[in-house]
Amino acid sequence: MNFDKKSxxxxxxxxxxxxxxxxxxxxxxxxxxxxxxxxxxxxxxxHTFDAAFNSSVSQATLYETxxxxxxxxxxxxTNCTALAYGQTGTGKSYSMGMGAEPVTEQxxxxxxxxxxxxLMRIPLLKADKENNRxxxxxxxxxxxxxxxxxxxxxxxxxxxxIAVRGQRFTGATKQLLSSLKDLQSLLELGxxxxxxxxxxxNQHSSRSHAIVTFSVQRGHRVSRLNxxxxxxxxxxxxxxxxxxxxDEGVFINMGLLAINKVLLSLTAGHAVIPYRESILTAVLxxxxxxCFTKLNYLFKPxxxx
Length: 305
Hints:
There is one protein chain. The protein is α/β, with parallel strands linked by helices and 305 residues long. The protein has a domain at 77-104 and 120-125 and 134-291: 3-Layer(aba) Sandwich (Kinesin). It is 30% helix and 27% strand. The chain has helices at 59-66, 68-75, 92-96, 110-127, 180-193, 236-239, 243-268, 279-288, and strands at residues 9-15, 30-32, 39-42, 45-48, 51-53, 80-86, 136-146, 149-152, 163-165, 168-170, 175-176, 196-197, 205-206, 209-218, 221-229, 292-299. A hairpin with a 2-residue loop joins strand 7 and strand 8. The chain starts with 8 loop residues before the first strand and ends in a 6-residue tail after the last strand.
């Protein structure tokens, strides 16, 4: 990945393992161009990204290529954001590492790998003579946006929406993080409270957008690494969801459409950015407007981009 490129928004894609089911046939329509690693061919249409990974890529390689450089930027004082976006059932939560189930070190996603690096590197910075005069601490928060309302997943009352004032959550929990064991406990606590529902496309579909924020506090200065697990995009006709699941899908797609508009406006350099079209983009405004952003798009082999 070229972190010196002019744009502050980089886009990568990852192919999910092929799984034949009633929504997929027996043949992929995705081809990886042999002469250009960052190019996909879908139904004879060519798509070029900042990076492209097939289904054999490891969790470690994905993290080291896409997100590990952001850790260095955050420790240097720059706000950074990584978003996982894609169709429902493509493995976004797995890639991000936001599940409640224990995993092996090989299966660790982006989130625990970020925490591991931060916990390892902060003491090294503290030991440096130029940095040891200013206390440095690492905090974590875990929030979700469900049906256009914000919920604190580390709160004792996660079902009660928290207030959003402009670009900030009012009263959101920030936990001091000192070990990976602490993080795992917090992830299990938050993931179990996140809205999940079985749908026609995914037996364990996340019905909310989740935001985990690592805050590196150095005196009065705070830099943030925001990891966003966006709920899966859903076509109403394809999913055939009904009732509450259908309503949730409508809110999910509203937030995703708003994210798309914001990122397109940012990359185009527009003077006016449509942050207020969704609570998701409203609260991400401060995270997207003045930070380095990664969009990790995950897709199934059958479905075109």
